[in-house]
Amino acid sequence: MEIIYHSKALEEFEIQEFEIREKFSTVYELIIYGHSRNKKKFKKIKRTILFELRVKHLKLIYRGLGAYYKKNYFVNLVFFQKKSQKIPLRFIKLALKRYSDLN
Length: 103
Description:
The protein is α+β, with helices and mostly antiparallel strands and 103 residues long. It has a single domain, classed as YaeB-like fold, CATH 3.30.2310. Helices cover 36% and strands 33% of the residues. The protein has a 5-stranded mixed β-sheet with strand order 1-5-4-3-2. A hairpin with a 6-residue loop joins strand 2 (42-44) and strand 3. It is globular, with a radius of gyration of 13 Å. The protein starts with a strand and ends with a helix.
């Protein structure tokens, strides 16, 4: 399994603090080594192809949305700071649009 980024998601990822990027890296290791059952950090979004990655840093919560692509890839599509209980629909739509751009 290889972790890849949509070009816009990579820009969003790189502007995050180093500690946040490191915490996302630990979630990627869970995905790569097949330990994606940790529901606190990696969860499928119902009725979509998307997965939510969760990271907490200094009492703030950060999210990434991604999806499995082809057989051996997990592609990161969107990164954002969570400000409400639900994932805003605009981020889900954006992630799905970026996923469709891959094909």
